[in-house]
Amino acid sequence: MGKQHIIPIGPFHPLLEEPEFFKFYVEGEKVVDADVRIGYNHRGIEKLAEAKTWEQDIFLVERICGICSTSHPFAFVQAAEDVSDIEVPERAKYIRTIIGELERVHSHLLWVGLAGHFIGYNTVFMWAWKYREPVLDMFEIISGNRNHYAMFKVGGVRRDITEDQSSQLLKVLDEAEKFTKMITKAVLDDPVLHARLKGIGVLKKQDAIDLCVVGPTARPSGVAIDVRKDHPYAAYDRVPWEMIVMQEGDVFAKAAVRLLETIESVKIIRGCLKDMPKGPIDAEVREVGVGEGIGHHEAPRGEVFHYVRANGTNYPERHKIRAPSYMNVPSFKKTVIGESLADAALITASVDPCYCCTERMAVVDPDSDRVLMTGEDLIKLSQKKTEELRSRKCF
Amino acid sequence: MSIVEQIKDKFKDKVDVFVKSKRRVYVTAASREDGKEVVRYLFRELGIRMAIASGLDTRPGVEILYHMTADRDNMIVTVKVLVKKPELKMLTFTDFMPAANWIEREIHELLGVDFIGHPNLETLLLPDDWEAGVFPLRKKSFESEKEGIEREYR
Predict the structure, then answer these.
(1) CA of B95: which chain A residue's CA is closest?
(2) Which of A44, A232, A318 is closest, CB to CB, to B54?
């Protein structure tokens, strides 16, 4: 005890707008302080958006994030439509909902796989990604691309979903749902996972409210907010589904919320495919108008928020983008302090920012700058703890 | 009583309320102190969470918009405060709303607004060796208006 070490983590790969750099101050195994710095891959997209037309901006904001690439265009087109209250055709609303939810399925499966890898359940990693693959293929069938679907435009969507595609989609959903249900049951029943994940990295309800965290970081802490339920848009108020809320706020609750949400997403897509009306998919909007507009969408990681000001030209006067991790990442300061180093990787992963960060973690001795541990060592440490729990049978 | 009525009732002539639609309300505060009181009232007493704040460069100053998302009422209340040039001094909201910490640092470095009382107004997005006094989100056209014909074209 006594001697403090600093663990720098990151700067990491641009999953969301903000790659972060974490510095953990540790005493022995215990994290005593945390510091975070973002901006390592600041691309100036807000400024760039002012120099591009409304049409070009949709493609620009799609490039903000590779995993939830539909979330930003979803919020942006709603902001642009909000400027002069453009009404979107019914069928387009259903297609938007399907794309948004399909993305949540693949994003949550990706998270489940990586979370499994971190705690030493590599089978989960392989399985989750196996079932994620057909979802990406489905995107390719619908939009022509596995990522960056370019489905959205102001006033509607670009491509229709045919009968043939919807029957294929139903098959993929059946498989994904079967797997998610199985893995959910396995996670909720596994005593090792209970011992490993429960009570770790707790975000208290009051802290969640003070820090204004959103999405699957807020809901496990008992803050019942979901843009899809509270501010119904697209077709979310037309199909039946439940909002998943838990009270514990620990890593276990965060994992459970994501898994249960995936099943709800499948339910939403099924409902949409069943009720989808026939008709046009585009309102043929000529211009955005003059004024201010706000659009928000519940991305896999929480609320994406876009504010635009239109001055009547073909370019937005101001375009403010806020990704969900911007609000979720500062919650580390509350969750990680007092926890052990073996859990730090898992807690940083539990809000689902980007995993590449943890690959690049290193433990450094501040006096000599000597690297004591690398990211791989930290993952091994985390996996070893699971093994120990399993062998000691202390649950 | 709806949120709009509550705001009008409490702040009377200190605010100018514009109801754009059922789901979007814009509240313009007369001064930065009033703006802080309105946001404090919304956040602490009505329990409305802050989505984000946007900074916007205009001719008279920097407009700061606090987007408050009222989840129970399906409404977004945007509180606008104009921070006048050339001082550009704004009050920090971090004392009652920790969530404002990052966005105030961001507006500080991208638009050059000074937040009085902020605990840690360091760079967040820009590199550590960024040139002082260069604010990326300021509008170039306003700067060149001041320079007039003296500006050199190449």
Answers:
(1) A210
(2) A318
